[in-house]
Amino acid sequence: MSPGDRCAQTKRALHQGARGYDERMFDMLVPVGDPVAFRWKKADDDGGQPMLFAEEELVDRHLGIGEYRGLEFLHVNARRLINEVPAGSHMPFRFTINAYRGCSHACAYCFARPTHEYLGLGMGEDFERKLVVKVNAVERVRAELRSPRWNGAHIAMGTNTDPYQRAEGRYHLTRGIVEALGEARNPFSILTKSTLILRDLDLLVAAASRTDVHCNLSIGTLDEDVWKATEPGTPHPRRRVEAVRRLNDAGIPTGVLVAPIIPGWSDAPEQLEEVAAACVEAGATFVTPIALHLRRGVKEHFLAFVEQHHPARHDALARRYARSAYLSPREQAVIAARLHAVVVPDRRRRSAADTFGHPASPAPAPRGAVVPATTTPAEQLPLLPPL
């Protein structure tokens, strides 16, 4: 199949799945050469199935131009989109949807980086620039929601890579999925660092009138130097705070994960107080501090990044994470105390499952309540993929 034929096939898949699809999205993409041979293997983030994409339709490559210059989009047809979390996982949800793999946010500490190695790609620049796009995502989600085998369980989005990263601005897959879930009255939650979620406010409001919908913004700091250094592809953190306000004002329960808090870099009392106060003022339904977690692979990548670009911070971070992927319980308790100083007195403990808005969860905590930082790796794991 020629590159032009594959491009036409991709347009048909997108058109069939997403309402409001605009073929002009391909004005910013250039088809390139023959399909790329990937190495597929079991991937925890996609339910652990041995084959993620159909053999005969592995990939179609497009190079971004204009505002997408420097990115490469690898189009694939996924065999399924609603993926069950492997048995024994500590995740507080059973099912996920990930329309993209890789992430242009380019967060130096991102725990999902190793998943690119499952595809035979690198966890460094490849993760940030070679983005897998499941072009039939909306079509597949609609079909799977109609299946008599589907029981309508809660679905979490944004648990691997961001569903509202830059690629979503062109492909509109997350928008189509949100619409499909709302129409099916299927409960769901979204975790994102992007203000692009506000583009879909109309669909989120419509979905929330039919089912349980929760959103969570990740805002690790308001310190511009830290933000620019560690997550250069994300929207300004103050814009994310405003997104929290607008989502809650529209009736979508939205909390904040102050994550990750980097020891010695973004954990000073004034830094934590600033971000916590802004989130409370914006009406966040909860504020959860989460300290930096560095599992194998990510630890080596992040520390190499720090050593190259911020050498003065390297040794202290290397010592802190020399024996564990987690910050010590004592340091986590200090972080929690600093956030407690600026939130409302009612600090009722809420579980990670509540964060994702399960239908059976208890009533939300009052606006501005803060969830204490976890004190053991076992408690922190539910917000992170298993090692």
Output the keywords.
387 residues; alpha/beta; seven-stranded mixed β-sheet; globular; disordered C terminus
Short description:
The chain is of the alpha/beta class and 387 residues long. 33% of the residues lie in helices and 14% in strands. The strands form 2 sheets. It has a 7-stranded mixed sheet. A 5-stranded mixed sheet has the order 1-2-3-7-6.
What report would you give on this structure?
The chain is an alpha/beta fold and 387 residues long. It has two domains: 1-211, no CATH class; 214-387. The chain has 14 helices and twelve strands. The chain has a seven-stranded mixed β-sheet with strand order 4-5-8-9-10-11-12. It is globular.
Topology readout:
Blueprint: H1 3-17, E1 29-32, E2 60-64, E3 72-76, E4 83-84, E5 95-97, E6 100-101, H2 125-129, E7 130-134, H3 137-146, E8 155-157, H4 168-171, H5 173-183, E9 188-192, H6 201-208, E10 213-218, H7 224-230, H8 237-249, E11 254-261, H9 269-281, E12 287-291, H10 298-309, H11 311-320, H12 329-340, H13 352-355, H14 377-380
Parallel strand pairs: 3-7, 5-8, 8-9, 9-10, 10-11, 11-12
Antiparallel strand pairs: 1-2, 2-3, 4-5, 6-7
Number of extended strands? 12
How would you state the average pLDDT, rounded?
81
Largest sheet: 7 strands, mixed
* Low-confidence blocks of residues: 20-28, 40-56, 345-355, 358-367, 370-387
> How far apart are the termini?
40 Å
Number of helix segments?
14
The count of domains is 2
User: What fraction, in percent, of the residue positions are helical?
Assistant: 25-40%
Instruction: Give the helices and strands as they follow along the chain.
Output: HEEEEEEHEHEHHEHEHHEHEHHHHH
The amount of beta strand, in percent, is 5-15%
- What general outline do the C-alpha atoms trace? globular
The secondary structure category is alpha/beta
Strand order of the largest sheet: 4-5-8-9-10-11-12
Rg over CA atoms, rounded to whole Å, is 20 Å
